[in-house]
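Record E3 ubiquitin-protein ligase RNF123, 1235 aa.
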Amino acid sequence: MRKMSHLFPVLCAVNTSSFCHGFLRPRMEGMGRAGQSCLFCLPLKIFCLLVQVIGHSNFGSIRATTCVYKGKWIYEVLISSQGLMQIGWCTLSCRFNQEEGVGDTPDSYAYDGNRVRKWNVTTTNYGKSWAAGDIVSCLIDLDEGTIAFCLNGISLGTAFDNITRGAGMAYFPAISLSFKESVAFNFGSRPLRYPLAAGRGGYRPLQDPPVADLVKARKLLGYLKNVIHLGIDVTEGKLVEKDTSMWQLQGEPTVLITLAHIFNYFAPLMCKVYLVEDVLMTFLLSILERGGAVEAHPLIQQLLDLMWLLMEEYEVHECLKQLLMSLLRAYRFSPIIPDLGLQIHYLRLTIAVLKHEKSRKYLLSNVLYPLHLLWSQFSLPTIVQPRRLQGSAGKEVKEESAEERLRRRAYERGCQRLKKRIEVVEGLQVQILKLLLNNKDRGGGEASRYIFLNKFRKFLQENASNRGNLTVLCPPEYMVCFLHRLIAALRFFWDGHKAKTPATLSSEAYVPPQLFYNGKVDYFDLQRLGGLLSHLKKTLKDDLAAKANVLIDPAELQAVTMDDLDEDEESAMSAAQSQRPSAALAIGGALARPGWLSSPTLGRANRFLSTAAVSLMNPRRPLGTLEKIKVRTLSVEQRTEEDIEGSHGNEGLLLGRPPEEPEQPITENSLLEVLDGIVMMYNLSVHQQLGKMVGVSDDVNEYAMALKDTEEKISRCPKRRRDIHEELLKSQKVFSEKLNHLSRRLAWINVTIYSKEKMQDIYWLLRVCIRTIEHGDRTGSLFAFMPEFYLSVAMNSYSALKNYFSPVNSMEELPGYEETLMRLAAILAKHFADSRIVGTDIRDSLMQALASYVCYPHSLRAVERIPEEQRISMMKNLLAPYEQRPWAQTNWILVRLWRGCGFGYRYTRLPHLLKTKPEDASLPSLQKPCPSTLLQRHMADLLRSDRDLAPSFLNSVLNQLNWAFSEFIGMIQEIQQAAERLERNFVDSRQLKVCATCFDLSVSLLRVLEMTVTLAPEIFLDWNRPSSELLLRRLAQLLNQVLNRVTAERNLFDRVVNLRLPGLESVDHYPILVAVTGILVRLLGKGGLTPSLCRAERATAVLLADPCFQLRSIQYLLGHAEPSALAAAPAAAEKRHFSLHTYTDYISTEELVKVDKMLSHLSEESKQAAATTLPTSEEDLCPICYAHPISAIFRPCSHKSCKACINQHLMNNKDCFFCKATITGVDDFTKPSSS
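=>
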């Protein structure tokens, strides 16, 4: 005999450090020691409604409050996720922690379907692998001392025997599960899904079923069926059989009175979840089993009418609630069979119930939200694999064997069959959403669509406000399914409205900009492009009045939030809200009560619902002829249908239309809000989920390569090494099983997430965002009101189309692909430096998106196709000074426009990295060079024509180069010092990453300087231009510093490069030396695009005049070592010296010839300069740099320095070096000749 058999067995969670809320506390009487709630467990989340448990720690454990010590017992566990879990039984003495759970201690026994093992201190193979949606039956026989498990009703065999029994030994249901894993328990409060397992051998659920009520309910249901099957033949006065599908609740008072008597006893029973699921749901499902469309079974509608007429309102509400929740559970926890027949069956019944208007409105108002409860019924879990889909989806090899070909074709056929069945399920899901979006069912209350809108907005608010709280958020896999079905339903209604009115097709849909500032749609606390909404209302109130005829309520200008409003205003709002009808009145009317059904003796039949029309509209508020409209932000609960759709001069959601928008509405206003919600949904979690699923394909390829490698090792393994051969066979089996599992999962993902139809949905969403941004941009300053997520979704959806859906589907096949690329390019080019956008994160995202855009040939060509004015404006913004703004991405964009044109700059991967493991080829940085000569030409024209732009831009580039290279040298000094210490130490990986980043920045800045010198050399060499001489001297100084640091023999750079530390792979001689060489060749050359002879001599003179210049650094480029190094040691002669001649695959012969000529030219010029240079006394040297003679005198203080130092100083500061007086002018200084 069991303890507490009459109580609901629940799970308890008690932790010494954190109390788990949702604790279910049963009555304590009769429990004794065996029923005490004293389990130690880790943080978990328990949902009372479904007895659902979610792991909130590394490996949390939990047990029930009810135990058994004799007899045969069973409970079911509904698997919600297929991760690491151990399910079974434990005793009161078991103690668990984050390392040891159920099955890891004596007297605890568990089954783990993730690793396919059983656990009791030790572990062995057992059972089959489970998946989300499976049901595990846990059986214990305390008479025989055995424990067994079943998976979806199929016995897995006895897992444990001879378990400990006797005095003081009682067993509790228990589970241990990893973080975010979830299950739901059924101890018998609801019908067991697999009663055959329960009935086999006399196993009983821990909670007894309501046997008496079951007998009564089934008998009453039989009476109800008899009434429906029979009719009265008035002419002959006898009963006749009738077709139940044609039965209607009309006429025949005797029939209705009989039904009223039946419901007098049947209705109270339908408030119990067990009876609803076992009796009512089974009966309704049997009606649909006859086949045909749902519309072909009006009997369900008639039965629902009967329930609303003959049952008390609270009884109908509870019955419908339990019915829908039972359908939800049945859908979620149905095993995935090839034809998905169970899921289709439950969806059909859901549709049949929701087709009943009054039932639909009640369920929509009270049951179907939170939305993840609704959509968990509609979404097939993306982590589940179809059971019988065989084959492998590994990376194809060039030579495919006959066996591999057969397996691949079988796999593809299985994918096609799966796709067809899933399309059926998705079609039913869309039908459900069409019912919920119905706006014509205004019988007795608000239409379904407006109930849905308010609930939908609340759902979005909860998910936007709790992005860090995983237990509150809608699971992302459900959100993905919901998004696609909602898009299909929305486009259906959008195009249906177009057929009736001169509106816009859904293919041209967008969200009008007035939704963002008129307060009709609540965007919660989401960031706007221009900052906080309260700030925008204050700063742009005049623009709103002038452009949109909108006046912001003064109360909102005084209060940051609605909570700060005056008490009078709050009371007025509450009074206005109290005048609106309650939600109960919004569910529609009831059947008219027949006059003859008025006898007080008929009990429940004596009640009826009034069919009097109830108006949901507030008194209309005519706008009159006022030019300005005062608006206030409305919360979700405050809005009515009139606030959404508008009426009699009130434009509803379109209030405050700017002159740039058309007068004719593009569709129904309510559909615009649905569209806006779809965009927000994608931003909340859909994009992240799309990216997450891509990893499955990578895993498949990795396991396929591992399996192939293992098979090759088996073929080469010597026969005498049986031990190695056996281990290889074990590895082959593991890899093969994992590959098959991942291949099935990949098939599911490709059908449900990455199919062509889903790709078209994301593409449609991208185009919606592009049109919305374009329309918002036309409103001028009001563009700042647009939420940031519109720009984020535009960028992320394009990224998803390009990176996630290929190679299965190609973006290039989408209609209007080239035009869409160009329009998105125009948005990125215009708004990455838009002053109306103030958020740092969104500005960085725009910059990164543009940087990625110019890395790919097809998208770069789209940038080149945007209007010339926009291209020039983009380049001008890119050439803005680097100070006080994030410049790294800007510089990267310029580098990408140049890559492929620079000296030795045609590589995709650096030469020294070719032998290393290849990186992800889809990364923007690993794309083949695709320079843009058109944008280069725009850059050259801007630098030549704008005499202020070029000096400020180049000065900032030189400043950043000086900083980046100095930081790099400082860091490699620290790294070298750490490496030379005798004690073992580790260099911080973050420091290595920063060091490599500074090196990469230095190289990219040098490439931008090379680009500038090539395209517009006169900026440095035409000394008639202001600052040209200074820029040239600064450039020469930096180039010499870089060369000296990198080329010195046995220097710091060499030692760090030779360490080959992980994280510093990109640090090498080649990238930085070829960049410097490219600048020198362009400055000193005498042909083509290079400067004239006079300018080349000027550049040579400046380079040689720099005190840091060393000819050996130039010689180092061609492998000419120093004489001292050659005579040092014999071992040193064997060391390979750097030379550009060894990189003939990357540097052309013509480029090498130019370097040879440059070396000869500098060698000759340096000899002449050394012969003609007179010694300079220390007194005549500049007191700042001590490198150049004094050549300038300051006014009015008369202090002196060289021109280079004072010109560089005056670019940033006007104060004297020495006395801090303001310098008003600089004159040439010539030392007077001595007497």
